Amino acid sequence: MTIINDRYLRALHCLPVDYTPIWMMRQAGRYLPEYRQLRALAGNFMTLCQTPELACEATLQPLRRFDLDAAIIFSDILTIPDAMGLGLYFESGEGPKFERKITNLNDIKSLPIPDPVESLSYVMDAISLTRKELAGRVPLIGFSGSPWTLATYMIEGGSSKTFTKIKKMLYSDPAALHMLLDKLAKTIALYLNAQIAAGAQSIMIFDTWGGVLSHQAYKEFSLYYMQQILSMLHQGDKNSDNILDYIPVTLFTKGGGLWLEEIKQTGCDAIGVDWTVNLSKITGRGKQIAVQGNLDPSILYADKQVIDKNVLQVLDEFGSHNGHIFNLGHGIDQNTPIENVQYFIDSVHQQSKRFHYA
After folding, report:
1. Who contacts 323 (Cβ-Cβ below 8 Å, separation ≥6)?
2. Which residues lie across from 301 on neighbouring strands?
3. 86 vs 99: CA distance, rounded Å
4. Tens digit of pLDDT for each residue in 231-275?
5. Residue 324: is its pLDDT beyond 90?
6. Which residue numbers are catalytic?
7. Is the peptide bond before 340 cis (omega within 30 degrees of 0)?
8. Element (H, E) at 251
9. Are 80 and 91 in contact (CB under 8 A)?
Protein backbone atom coordinates (compact mmCIF):
# COMPACT_ATOMS: atom_id res chain seq x y z
CA MET A 1 0.00 0.00 0.00
CA THR A 2 1.31 3.43 -0.92
CA ILE A 3 1.19 6.38 1.49
CA ILE A 4 -0.68 9.49 0.39
CA ASN A 5 1.32 11.79 2.68
CA ASP A 6 4.84 10.40 3.00
CA ARG A 7 6.59 13.60 4.15
CA TYR A 8 7.37 12.16 7.58
CA LEU A 9 9.11 9.10 6.13
CA ARG A 10 10.88 11.19 3.51
CA ALA A 11 12.22 13.47 6.23
CA LEU A 12 13.45 10.45 8.20
CA HIS A 13 15.35 9.41 5.07
CA CYS A 14 16.65 13.00 4.73
CA LEU A 15 14.93 13.35 1.37
CA PRO A 16 13.42 16.61 0.04
CA VAL A 17 9.91 17.63 1.13
CA ASP A 18 7.76 20.64 0.28
CA TYR A 19 7.23 21.55 3.96
CA THR A 20 8.45 20.28 7.32
CA PRO A 21 6.29 17.38 8.54
CA ILE A 22 4.90 17.52 12.06
CA TRP A 23 3.44 15.18 14.64
CA MET A 24 3.19 15.65 18.40
CA MET A 25 4.25 13.45 21.26
CA ARG A 26 1.10 12.47 23.18
CA GLN A 27 -1.03 13.81 20.32
CA ALA A 28 -3.81 11.43 21.37
CA GLY A 29 -4.58 12.58 24.89
CA ARG A 30 -6.58 14.45 27.47
CA TYR A 31 -6.45 17.86 25.76
CA LEU A 32 -8.99 16.41 23.26
CA PRO A 33 -12.62 16.31 24.47
CA GLU A 34 -13.29 13.29 22.25
CA TYR A 35 -10.43 11.45 23.96
CA ARG A 36 -11.86 12.20 27.39
CA GLN A 37 -15.19 10.77 26.23
CA LEU A 38 -13.44 7.65 24.91
CA ARG A 39 -11.52 7.26 28.15
CA ALA A 40 -14.77 7.48 30.10
CA LEU A 41 -16.34 4.88 27.80
CA ALA A 42 -13.42 2.51 28.41
CA GLY A 43 -13.76 2.90 32.16
CA ASN A 44 -10.03 2.90 32.85
CA PHE A 45 -6.76 3.55 31.07
CA MET A 46 -5.66 -0.08 30.87
CA THR A 47 -8.90 -1.12 29.19
CA LEU A 48 -8.40 1.69 26.69
CA CYS A 49 -4.89 0.40 25.90
CA GLN A 50 -5.85 -3.28 25.83
CA THR A 51 -8.92 -3.00 23.60
CA PRO A 52 -7.66 -2.77 19.99
CA GLU A 53 -10.78 -1.01 18.68
CA LEU A 54 -10.56 1.66 21.38
CA ALA A 55 -6.79 2.10 20.96
CA CYS A 56 -7.31 2.47 17.20
CA GLU A 57 -9.98 5.11 17.78
CA ALA A 58 -7.70 7.04 20.14
CA THR A 59 -4.91 6.91 17.56
CA LEU A 60 -7.14 8.31 14.82
CA GLN A 61 -8.83 11.09 16.82
CA PRO A 62 -6.12 13.77 16.45
CA LEU A 63 -5.82 13.00 12.72
CA ARG A 64 -9.49 13.79 12.21
CA ARG A 65 -9.06 17.16 13.86
CA PHE A 66 -5.58 18.23 12.69
CA ASP A 67 -3.48 18.02 9.52
CA LEU A 68 -0.75 15.90 11.12
CA ASP A 69 1.86 14.09 9.05
CA ALA A 70 2.06 10.88 11.10
CA ALA A 71 0.01 8.76 13.50
CA ILE A 72 1.47 7.07 16.57
CA ILE A 73 -0.23 4.00 17.96
CA PHE A 74 -2.07 4.64 21.21
CA SER A 75 -0.44 2.57 23.94
CA ASP A 76 1.83 3.01 26.96
CA ILE A 77 5.54 2.40 27.49
CA LEU A 78 4.78 0.35 30.61
CA THR A 79 2.99 -2.47 28.80
CA ILE A 80 6.27 -4.42 28.84
CA PRO A 81 6.73 -4.46 32.65
CA ASP A 82 3.07 -5.39 32.90
CA ALA A 83 3.64 -8.33 30.53
CA MET A 84 6.58 -9.36 32.74
CA GLY A 85 4.14 -9.83 35.59
CA LEU A 86 4.56 -6.66 37.66
CA GLY A 87 0.86 -5.73 37.63
CA LEU A 88 0.57 -2.24 36.12
CA TYR A 89 -2.25 -0.02 37.32
CA PHE A 90 -3.02 3.70 37.33
CA GLU A 91 -4.20 5.79 40.27
CA SER A 92 -6.00 9.04 39.56
CA GLY A 93 -3.64 11.98 40.04
CA GLU A 94 -0.68 9.75 40.90
CA GLY A 95 0.25 8.15 37.58
CA PRO A 96 1.42 4.57 36.96
CA LYS A 97 2.14 2.12 39.76
CA PHE A 98 3.04 -1.59 40.03
CA GLU A 99 1.61 -4.20 42.33
CA ARG A 100 5.09 -5.74 42.48
CA LYS A 101 8.40 -3.93 42.04
CA ILE A 102 11.99 -4.99 41.53
CA THR A 103 14.08 -4.81 44.69
CA ASN A 104 16.96 -7.28 44.30
CA LEU A 105 18.82 -9.71 42.05
CA ASN A 106 16.41 -12.58 42.71
CA ASP A 107 13.49 -10.45 41.52
CA ILE A 108 15.38 -9.81 38.29
CA LYS A 109 16.33 -13.45 37.79
CA SER A 110 12.70 -14.49 38.06
CA LEU A 111 11.49 -12.02 35.41
CA PRO A 112 10.42 -13.71 32.17
CA ILE A 113 11.18 -12.47 28.67
CA PRO A 114 7.59 -12.48 27.40
CA ASP A 115 6.55 -13.37 23.87
CA PRO A 116 4.92 -10.13 22.65
CA VAL A 117 2.77 -11.96 20.12
CA GLU A 118 1.08 -13.69 23.06
CA SER A 119 1.26 -11.35 26.03
CA LEU A 120 1.03 -8.07 24.10
CA SER A 121 -1.15 -9.20 21.22
CA TYR A 122 -3.55 -6.34 21.87
CA VAL A 123 -0.88 -3.85 20.75
CA MET A 124 -0.24 -5.74 17.53
CA ASP A 125 -3.99 -6.05 16.87
CA ALA A 126 -4.36 -2.30 17.39
CA ILE A 127 -1.53 -1.61 14.93
CA SER A 128 -3.02 -3.90 12.27
CA LEU A 129 -6.47 -2.38 12.70
CA THR A 130 -5.13 1.19 12.64
CA ARG A 131 -3.12 0.55 9.48
CA LYS A 132 -6.32 -0.69 7.83
CA GLU A 133 -8.30 2.34 9.01
CA LEU A 134 -5.59 4.80 7.96
CA ALA A 135 -5.72 3.39 4.42
CA GLY A 136 -2.34 4.93 3.60
CA ARG A 137 -3.29 8.46 4.67
CA VAL A 138 -0.12 8.93 6.80
CA PRO A 139 2.54 6.58 8.23
CA LEU A 140 1.98 4.79 11.56
CA ILE A 141 4.62 4.99 14.30
CA GLY A 142 5.21 2.17 16.77
CA PHE A 143 7.17 2.70 19.98
CA SER A 144 8.62 1.48 23.25
CA GLY A 145 10.27 2.94 26.29
CA SER A 146 14.03 2.46 26.59
CA PRO A 147 15.45 -0.20 28.93
CA TRP A 148 16.70 2.43 31.39
CA THR A 149 13.37 4.28 31.45
CA LEU A 150 11.36 1.07 31.98
CA ALA A 151 13.79 -0.03 34.69
CA THR A 152 13.26 3.23 36.60
CA TYR A 153 9.53 2.55 36.89
CA MET A 154 10.06 -1.13 37.74
CA ILE A 155 12.52 -0.41 40.56
CA GLU A 156 10.95 2.80 41.88
CA GLY A 157 7.50 1.20 41.73
CA GLY A 158 6.10 4.10 39.70
CA SER A 159 7.02 7.69 38.91
CA SER A 160 9.91 9.33 40.75
CA LYS A 161 11.51 12.74 41.12
CA THR A 162 14.77 11.60 42.70
CA PHE A 163 15.34 8.07 41.26
CA THR A 164 17.00 7.11 44.54
CA LYS A 165 16.22 3.39 44.41
CA ILE A 166 17.47 2.73 40.88
CA LYS A 167 20.56 4.88 41.36
CA LYS A 168 21.31 3.01 44.57
CA MET A 169 21.23 -0.24 42.58
CA LEU A 170 23.28 1.33 39.78
CA TYR A 171 26.14 2.20 42.10
CA SER A 172 25.88 -0.57 44.75
CA ASP A 173 24.90 -3.54 42.56
CA PRO A 174 25.57 -2.66 38.91
CA ALA A 175 25.65 -6.32 37.84
CA ALA A 176 22.02 -6.73 38.91
CA LEU A 177 20.95 -3.63 37.04
CA HIS A 178 22.83 -4.77 33.93
CA MET A 179 20.99 -8.09 34.09
CA LEU A 180 17.65 -6.25 34.22
CA LEU A 181 18.59 -3.90 31.38
CA ASP A 182 19.76 -6.82 29.25
CA LYS A 183 16.43 -8.63 29.76
CA LEU A 184 14.55 -5.46 28.91
CA ALA A 185 16.61 -4.84 25.76
CA LYS A 186 15.86 -8.36 24.49
CA THR A 187 12.17 -8.00 25.36
CA ILE A 188 11.91 -4.59 23.71
CA ALA A 189 13.58 -5.84 20.52
CA LEU A 190 11.06 -8.69 20.31
CA TYR A 191 8.23 -6.26 21.00
CA LEU A 192 9.31 -3.75 18.35
CA ASN A 193 9.91 -6.45 15.77
CA ALA A 194 6.37 -7.68 16.44
CA GLN A 195 5.10 -4.13 15.94
CA ILE A 196 6.96 -3.93 12.63
CA ALA A 197 5.46 -7.25 11.53
CA ALA A 198 2.00 -5.95 12.49
CA GLY A 199 2.42 -2.86 10.32
CA ALA A 200 4.37 -0.13 12.14
CA GLN A 201 6.19 1.96 9.53
CA SER A 202 8.54 3.79 11.87
CA ILE A 203 9.78 3.13 15.40
CA MET A 204 10.33 5.52 18.29
CA ILE A 205 12.28 4.64 21.45
CA PHE A 206 11.47 6.96 24.36
CA ASP A 207 14.34 7.33 26.82
CA THR A 208 12.37 9.65 29.07
CA TRP A 209 14.68 9.44 32.07
CA GLY A 210 18.10 9.08 30.42
CA GLY A 211 18.80 12.72 31.18
CA VAL A 212 18.94 12.08 34.96
CA LEU A 213 22.14 10.06 34.56
CA SER A 214 25.75 11.19 34.76
CA HIS A 215 27.75 11.37 31.53
CA GLN A 216 29.42 7.98 31.98
CA ALA A 217 26.35 6.29 33.47
CA TYR A 218 24.22 7.40 30.51
CA LYS A 219 26.54 5.69 28.04
CA GLU A 220 26.82 2.49 30.13
CA PHE A 221 23.28 2.06 31.46
CA SER A 222 21.10 3.73 28.82
CA LEU A 223 22.69 4.33 25.43
CA TYR A 224 24.44 0.94 25.28
CA TYR A 225 21.16 -0.93 25.65
CA MET A 226 19.36 1.20 23.07
CA GLN A 227 22.16 0.35 20.67
CA GLN A 228 21.69 -3.34 21.50
CA ILE A 229 18.01 -3.01 20.56
CA LEU A 230 18.91 -1.38 17.25
CA SER A 231 21.21 -4.29 16.42
CA MET A 232 18.31 -6.72 16.86
CA LEU A 233 15.61 -4.91 14.87
CA HIS A 234 14.31 -6.11 11.51
CA GLN A 235 14.33 -2.79 9.71
CA GLY A 236 14.46 -3.98 6.12
CA ASP A 237 16.47 -2.61 3.19
CA LYS A 238 17.75 0.91 3.82
CA ASN A 239 19.16 1.15 0.29
CA SER A 240 15.88 0.33 -1.44
CA ASP A 241 14.43 2.95 -3.79
CA ASN A 242 11.11 2.43 -2.02
CA ILE A 243 11.13 4.13 1.41
CA LEU A 244 8.44 1.71 2.59
CA ASP A 245 10.98 -1.13 2.43
CA TYR A 246 12.83 0.23 5.47
CA ILE A 247 11.65 0.98 9.01
CA PRO A 248 13.49 4.04 10.40
CA VAL A 249 14.15 4.35 14.13
CA THR A 250 14.20 7.54 16.21
CA LEU A 251 15.94 7.67 19.60
CA PHE A 252 14.69 10.34 21.99
CA THR A 253 16.46 11.04 25.27
CA LYS A 254 14.80 13.80 27.25
CA GLY A 255 17.61 15.95 28.59
CA GLY A 256 20.03 14.23 26.22
CA GLY A 257 21.52 17.31 24.56
CA LEU A 258 24.98 16.53 25.94
CA TRP A 259 25.15 13.22 24.07
CA LEU A 260 23.96 14.02 20.55
CA GLU A 261 27.13 12.77 18.89
CA GLU A 262 27.10 9.57 20.93
CA ILE A 263 23.44 8.96 20.06
CA LYS A 264 24.21 9.49 16.40
CA GLN A 265 26.89 6.78 16.58
CA THR A 266 24.30 4.14 17.54
CA GLY A 267 23.17 3.90 13.93
CA CYS A 268 19.69 5.28 14.59
CA ASP A 269 17.99 7.12 11.72
CA ALA A 270 16.87 10.17 13.70
CA ILE A 271 17.62 11.91 16.98
CA GLY A 272 14.73 13.31 18.97
CA VAL A 273 15.62 16.35 21.08
CA ASP A 274 13.89 18.44 23.73
CA TRP A 275 13.63 22.24 23.83
CA THR A 276 17.00 22.69 25.59
CA VAL A 277 18.86 21.89 22.35
CA ASN A 278 19.77 24.50 19.75
CA LEU A 279 19.23 22.69 16.45
CA SER A 280 21.96 24.72 14.74
CA LYS A 281 24.51 23.05 17.03
CA ILE A 282 23.65 19.51 15.99
CA THR A 283 26.38 18.02 13.85
CA GLY A 284 25.83 15.43 11.17
CA ARG A 285 22.59 16.77 9.76
CA GLY A 286 21.57 16.58 6.11
CA LYS A 287 21.93 13.15 4.55
CA GLN A 288 23.55 11.56 7.59
CA ILE A 289 20.81 11.68 10.22
CA ALA A 290 17.42 13.26 10.73
CA VAL A 291 16.40 15.41 13.68
CA GLN A 292 13.04 15.54 15.46
CA GLY A 293 12.01 18.47 17.65
CA ASN A 294 11.81 20.67 19.52
CA LEU A 295 9.27 23.34 20.60
CA ASP A 296 8.63 23.77 24.33
CA PRO A 297 5.04 22.48 24.83
CA SER A 298 4.29 25.42 27.14
CA ILE A 299 4.57 27.81 24.20
CA LEU A 300 1.19 26.50 23.06
CA TYR A 301 -0.39 28.43 25.93
CA ALA A 302 0.78 31.70 24.37
CA ASP A 303 -0.91 33.89 21.75
CA LYS A 304 -0.56 33.36 18.01
CA GLN A 305 2.28 35.84 17.57
CA VAL A 306 4.39 34.06 20.18
CA ILE A 307 3.64 30.67 18.62
CA ASP A 308 4.62 31.95 15.17
CA LYS A 309 7.82 33.51 16.52
CA ASN A 310 8.96 30.35 18.28
CA VAL A 311 8.04 28.06 15.38
CA LEU A 312 10.11 30.23 13.06
CA GLN A 313 13.01 30.20 15.52
CA VAL A 314 13.09 26.40 15.50
CA LEU A 315 12.90 26.32 11.70
CA ASP A 316 15.68 28.93 11.44
CA GLU A 317 17.89 26.94 13.80
CA PHE A 318 17.64 23.85 11.63
CA GLY A 319 17.88 25.84 8.41
CA SER A 320 17.33 24.81 4.80
CA HIS A 321 18.37 21.20 5.19
CA ASN A 322 16.57 17.94 4.58
CA GLY A 323 15.80 15.72 7.54
CA HIS A 324 13.75 17.78 10.00
CA ILE A 325 10.58 16.48 11.67
CA PHE A 326 8.88 19.17 13.72
CA ASN A 327 7.65 18.08 17.14
CA LEU A 328 7.27 19.30 20.68
CA GLY A 329 10.23 18.76 22.99
CA HIS A 330 8.01 16.46 25.05
CA GLY A 331 4.35 15.48 25.30
CA ILE A 332 1.57 18.02 24.86
CA ASP A 333 0.05 19.23 28.13
CA GLN A 334 -3.52 18.13 28.88
CA ASN A 335 -4.74 21.72 29.39
CA THR A 336 -3.43 23.07 26.07
CA PRO A 337 -6.10 25.06 24.16
CA ILE A 338 -7.18 23.12 21.08
CA GLU A 339 -7.33 26.24 18.92
CA ASN A 340 -3.65 26.87 19.70
CA VAL A 341 -2.75 23.33 18.65
CA GLN A 342 -4.49 23.89 15.33
CA TYR A 343 -2.70 27.20 14.85
CA PHE A 344 0.65 25.65 15.76
CA ILE A 345 0.35 22.89 13.17
CA ASP A 346 -0.74 25.32 10.47
CA SER A 347 2.12 27.66 11.40
CA VAL A 348 4.70 24.88 10.99
CA HIS A 349 3.31 23.91 7.59
CA GLN A 350 3.07 27.46 6.28
CA GLN A 351 6.31 28.94 7.66
CA SER A 352 8.42 25.90 6.77
CA LYS A 353 7.73 26.11 3.04
CA ARG A 354 10.42 28.78 2.62
CA PHE A 355 13.03 26.30 3.91
CA HIS A 356 12.28 23.67 1.27
CA TYR A 357 12.64 23.59 -2.49
CA ALA A 358 10.86 20.36 -3.40
Report:
1. 11, 12, 14, 270, 285, 286, 287, 289, 290, 291
2. none
3. 6
4. 999 999 999 999 999 999 999 999 999 999 999 999 999 999 999
5. yes
6. 26, 30, 39, 76, 153
7. no
8. strand 249-253
9. no
